[in-house]
Structures are given as structure tokens and as C-alpha cells.
Specification:
alpha/beta, FAD/NAD(P)-binding domain, seven-stranded mixed beta sheet, five-stranded mixed beta sheet, 21% helix, binds FE2/S2 (inorganic) cluster
Length: 415
């Protein structure tokens, strides 16, 4: 069993008619992995198997139908007793999907639009087939419930993201008596300080924060900027005078053949599963990629009772039909494994900053788009500050330093 320690109280959930035991409140994806299931659904068009990669809601590899609603990111949804989960995009089921033939028949490309062209008599049949091949799930069982009106808020200073940079910033703002509000989309603060594998991290601070509050957009009304925040399924329109973004980055999927197989996971996803949820997703874990992070992750894996192999190696290809069963690493060594954990810095999450007017540039050395800011974190928009990994790869100590510098600048301006 992938659980590192036994769970005292469990609830029952249903996956394609099978009963699974889960811990209430843990992410659904985590509960499925803890039940030794790696295949979550099938991809559009080629119907290749899919399983979680990032565990942060950024890759769409863990989408499932949950209680009749399609395309739910199961890594972001907490388990509730009696939940009904269905794998989607498969005929008859995701483990033996017959539509996978598409991946073998159309080796080079497949255009489902042309699939229908010039066949007027058979078009309605072909349309149905094309939808099965190319669509994502089927419509919900019932109409969405009526939403309550949005709550309007106004704040002088808003901080988004409670990882290393955000926590250091709000600690300094608190010390200097600067009023602020902190939003964090996870149900807890800490970010990689409490779920990563990095050595020598600063200790997390249990800052007062509005956790489980996800910023989903940034807009303006009559020139006044506001954030759209979803908190407990309610929309809040949060107007602000100044904004500090410390939202980190998205796990990057390295390029190698079969990199989309279930079992290929971001190193931080594996460390999150181990540290935060007590789940080791496989017995033999190839900890590949950036050496320092790979070493630290390997220690976590071993501490959880697993075997770590290929530490810091460069992947040539992943092997497996439905999920990973081996990896070939440079120069040319094939090793059996269940999980390939790809270690390395994330790609900066620049989207909100870009919407707020920051400049974003391509950095050829990190091979990422990064948010441009001065040494205090101020961007091209004087009311917008950024800190941490959204400015490029860095340790959590360096991110905390940037958070501190941004807080000092904001506190100075507040006087
Ligand atoms: S979106 Fe859920 S694992 Fe990436």
C-alpha cells in the first residue's frame, strides 16, 4: 500500500463503481494514488492514458468526472464521504480504452475536423465518433446551482501566495505595522517550505491568511484594478491600492518520449505527497533531473520506505503501456521503476503579473519567461510588486529575501 502510515479513520468513495477507502479532506488525486491507481483518464484525440503530474492544478492530467461534473482537477478537490468518481474520455473504460487505437493508427497526426469532411450521409455517425475521440468528457448531469452575488472588498495592500516569499513579506509587514491581507489558494500556508524537498529552507511561519482562497483573474472597473477571488465557492471582487504577488511557478514537464505516461510526476508533486499527505506513489522512484533537489527527494523517498534510483540522471525515455514501468537514462541504461520524479525549477507563474501590467521577458539561460522587477520587486506598474520564483529559479531562502525586500519597499511607501 502506498500509505506511509495507516489512516485511523477513513471514508468510502467510489471510482468507476469500485469502493475505495480515503482520508476525508485529502485531495481526491492523493486518495486514488493511495489506492494504487495511476490511470485517471484518457487524453483527447490520441486517448493516451493520463495520471497526475503536478498536484497543483496546473497540468490537467488528473481530470475526472466528480459527482457528475466533468473535467474536475482532482488534485485540487478534497475527499468527501460518498463521492462518485468516473474516469472520462474512454470506451469502454480508461484501462482498456479501445479508442487508444487512434494513437497507433494516426502515428504522425490526426485532424478530427477533416474526419467529417465530404461524408454527408455518414456525417452524424462520424460526428459522434469525432466527439468521442476529440472531446473532454460529457456534459454535467444537471445544471449548475444558482451562484450568490459577488462580495466586494477594498484593501490598501493585498499579498497573494503564502510560500517562502509571501510569508517573509507578511511577517515583515506585520512587524512594521502595515495593514494587509494575504490570500493563499491551498488550504494551508507554507508552499514549498512545508511540501518541498529542498535542504536548508527557512522555517515556515504560521501567518494569518485567508487560505483556500484562489485568485482566478485580475480585472479593472473604471480603471480601478481588482482581483477575482474564489473563496468557499463564493466570488469576491477584491479592489486594492497596491499588490504583492508571490505565486511561485508551474512544474515543468521535461521533453522525452512517453513523458505523458501516468507515473511521470514533478519532483515537488512527489515530495508533497510524501510530506503533506503521507503517500508514496510508487515503490521504486527514479529521482531524475536537477541533482540537489533529486538527492533531497531521494532521501524523502527512502525515509518513506521506497527505493530511489537514477538520482540526478538525465532521462532518455520512459517505458510502459498504461503507466511507467521503466526509464532509460543517459548514457543508455534501462532501469525498472514505477515513478519518474522530474526534479528542477518550475516555470514562473507570470500570468497575473502580466495582467497587472508587469513586463515579462524570455530568459535564455533559465529557458523561462520571467517577470521583470527591480531589486525591491517593483515592476513596470509602480503599484505592483513581485517576489520569489515568479522572477525565475531560486532557492526558498532567496525567495524569502526578495519577499523581505518587497515588504520593506511597501512599508516605506506606506509611511
Ligand atoms: S492538474 Fe492535477 S495533477 Fe496537474
Amino acid at each position: 500500500m502506498p500509505r506511509i502510515s495507516p489512516v485511523e479513520t477513513t471514508v468510502t468513495i467510489e471510482l468507476d463503481g469500485d469502493q475505495l477507502q480515503a482520508r476525508e479532506g485529502e485531495p481526491v488525486a492523493c486518495a486514488i494514488l493511495a489506492n494504487d491507481q495511476l490511470i485517471f483518464s484518457r487524453s483527447a484525440k490520441y486517448h493516451r492514458p493520463r495520471g497526475p503530474f503536478c498536484m497543483t492544478g496546473a497540468c490537467a492530467h488528473c481530470l475526472m468526472r466528480v459527482d457528475g461534473i466533468p473535467n474536475v482537477a482532482t488534485c485540487r478537490v478534497p475527499v468527501k464521504a460518498g463521492m462518485r468518481l468516473e474516469r472520462q474520455n474512454a470506451l469502454p473504460d480508461a484501462r482498456i480504452d479501445l479508442l487508444r487505437a487512434n494513437d497507433f493508427v494516426f502515428r504522425d497526426w490526426f485532424n478530427h475536423h477533416e474526419f467529417m469532411a465530404g461524408w454527408p450521409i455518414a456525417e452524424h455517425v462520424l460526428l459522434k465518433i469525432a466527439r468521442q475521440l476529440s472531446g473532454l468528457g460529457v456534459l454535467p448531469e444537471k445544471a449548475a446551482e444558482h451562484r450568490q452575488p459577488a462580495i466586494i472588498e477594498e484593501h490598501e495592500l493585498v499579498v497573494v501566495g503564502a510560500g517562502a516569499a509571501g510569508l517573509a513579506a507578511v511577517r515583515q509587514l506585520t512587524t512594521r505595522g502595515v495593514p494587509h491581507v494575504l490570500f493563499e489558494r491551498d488550504p494551508h500556508v507554507g508552499g514549498r517550505l512545508t511540501s518541498g524537498a529542498e535542504k536548508g529552507q527557512p522555517a515556515p511561519w504560521n501567518a494569518p491568511a485567508r487560505v483556500g482562497a484562489e485568485v482566478v483573474g485580475l480585472f479593472a472597473d473604471d480603471g480601478k484594478p481588482f482581483l477575482a477571488v474564489v473563496e468557499q465557492e463564493r466570488l469576491h471582487l477584491v479592489f486594492y491600492q497596491r499588490l504583492l504577488l508571490t505565486v511561485g511557478g508551474h512544474a515543468m514537464l521535461p521533453t522525452f518520449p512517453n513523458n505523458d505516461l501516468p507515473g511521470v510526476m514533478a519532483g515537488r508533486a512527489v515530495s508533497t505527497l510524501i510530506r503533506r499527505h503521507g503517500v508514496l506513489p510508487g515503490k521504486r522512484v527514479a529521482c531524475v533531473g536537477e541533482l540537489d533537489e533529486a538527492r533531497s527527494l531521494a532521501e524523502l523517498v527512502k525515509g518513506a520506505g521506497g527505493e530511489a534510483i537514477a538520482i540526478g540522471a538525465e532521462v532518455v525515455r520512459a517505458h510502459g503501456l498504461r503507466s511507467v514501468n521503466a526509464v532509460t537514462v543517459k548514457p543508455n541504461e534501462k532501469l525498472g521503476c514505477d515513478i519518474i520524479a522530474t526534479c528542477g525549477p518550475p516555470s514562473p507563474a507570470f500570468e497575473l503579473a502580466r495582467c497587472a501590467g508587469a513586463e515579462v521577458v524570455w530568459n535564455p539561460s533559465s529557458r523561462c519567461f520571467e517577470v521583470v522587477a527591480d531589486n525591491r520587486g517593483q515592476t513596470a506598474n509602480p503599484a505592483l510588486f513581485v517576489a520569489g520564483e515568479m522572477r525565475g529559479p531560486m532557492s526558498s531562502s532567496a525567495a524569502a529575501e526578495q519577499g523581505l525586500a518587497a515588504a520593506d519597499a511597501l512599508a516605506g511607501a506606506a509611511r
